[in-house]
Amino acid sequence: SSGINAEYGRSILKAKRTLAVITKVDLMEKTAENRCVLEGKVIPIKLGIVGVINRTQSQTDKGVSMEECLKKEEEYFKRYYHYLSNSMGTPYLTQKVVHNLNLPYKEMPSRISYPNY
Fold first, then answer.
1. What is the largest CA-CA distance in the chain?
2. 85-109: pLDDT as tens digits
3. Nearest to 110 by CA among 90, 86, 91, 88
4. pTM of the model
5. Which of 50, 53, 76, 85 has the most Cβ atoms closer than 10 angstroms to its Cβ?
């Protein structure tokens, strides 16, 4: 199993269009090592690493809007990772994915709609 994982890891590092997403960044300990992970210093991913904060089931049940969750996500990154805040979060991830799918930026929706589950 570890041989398969090692080979998989090497193939990811060689990939030209690999983008890593770390979810629930707000639950990670705020250590120097975790900061280095988000900066891409621990695992060099070609298109970088984007941290996001997911809306919790509790927030969904309470009717917290996606817009409010996105605002809280933005505030979190500005507070704890201010030097990375422009390259973290769901809106940045959306922009990065659309860009790397070779869609012209002008065709990207100016506002992304998120359904309330």
1. 45
2. 899 999 999 988 888 776 555 555 5
3. 91
4. 0.71
5. 50
Residue 82 identity? H
Element (H, E) at 49: strand 49-51
C-alpha distances out from residue 28 to 51, 55, 78, Å: 11, 15, 16
Residue with tokens 């390259």: 87
CA dihedral 86, 81, 67, 94 (to 10 degrees): 40
Phi/psi of residue 10, nearest 5 degrees:
-65, -40
88, 81 contact by CB (below 8 A): yes
Distance of CA 16 to the CA centre of its chain: 18
The phi and psi torsions of 49 (rounded to 5 degrees) equal -125, 130
Which residues face 21 on adjacent strands? 50
